Amino acid sequence: MIITPNTGQLLLAAAHNNAAWCAAVSRDGRFTAGAWISPRRTPPYYPDAVTLTGGTDAAALVAGIDTVSPGASVKDSFAALDLTPAGFEVLFGAQWIHRPAGAPAAAPALEWAPVAGPAELEAWEAAWNGGDSTGLFHPGLLTDHDGDIAFLAGRDAQGRILAGATANRTGEVVGVSNAFSVDGTPDEEAWAGALTLVDSLWPGLAVVGYESGDDLDTALGQGFAAIGPLRVWVHGG
Q: Could you write out the three-class secondary structure of 196-230?
């Protein structure tokens, strides 16, 4: 892949956007010139650090997180680090994705609207989790970020949430993550509904995120392009 100046800027924007989302969910951590770092263990599925540039100092990054208690992880946003000497191994690789502003979206089949209030957030998380809500997504995400975060829900005629995604705006991009469809609902519905709603909430902004495997294929089918690799490292201890 040839990294053009525009692609390089998109990668920086996508990494920062994702770090801001991780910081909001974790309610902890600090931003440095090269990374977002949480000194305490973050919630499940969320890394303890996210690199913001391709030149982040690996030793300083590792020194800023807790590698004593189990489960330390690092999102290596540019697939540029070697954390093996610090006791980490690669958990998975993925691709950053980008969709230009104004690109047409497929028409969703469900009724889509942002989640409003703690009860709806709990129902959204239960659908996303395939069972019960665990409280991973705290109500402050709905109220404490000046409208820059939204939980997007696709509902059937009975009001059941059958698909959804999260979205957060930073600068001139909107990050979409946690896209899901419950069993029996096409995977494409989550992206069709989320992209339509994002365009309504934040018109004129590009959309970024990251995916892998079949989820990446689904996103590419909805008008995204892969713009660069990332890796997630997990501490072996």
A: HHHHHHCCCCEEEEEECHHHHHHHHCCCCEEEEEE
d(CA 34, CA 113): 36
Tens digit of each residue's pLDDT (9 = 90 or more) over 20-58: 999 999 999 999 999 999 999 999 999 999 999 999 999
Decide: 233 and 81 in contact? Cβ < 8 Å.
Answer: yes
Identity of the amino acid at 75: K
pTM over 0.85: yes
Query: In 111-205, which residue ranges form alpha helices assigned H by DSSP?
Result: 118-129, 140-143, 187-201
Q: Which of 55, 62, 52, 51 is nearest to 85 (CA)?
A: 62
Please state, in angstroms and rounded to a whole number, the distance separating the CA atoms of residues 42 and 137.
12
Pairing of strands 149-155, 35-37: unpaired
- Residue positions counted in the chain: 237
Helix, strand, or coil here: 75?
Answer: strand
Q: Are 98 and 208 in contact (CB under 8 A)?
A: yes
Q: What are the distances in angstroms from CA 39 to CA 23, 49, 187, 237?
A: 12, 9, 36, 16
Please state, in angstroms and rounded to a whole number, the distance separating the CA atoms of residues 152 and 112. Answer: 7
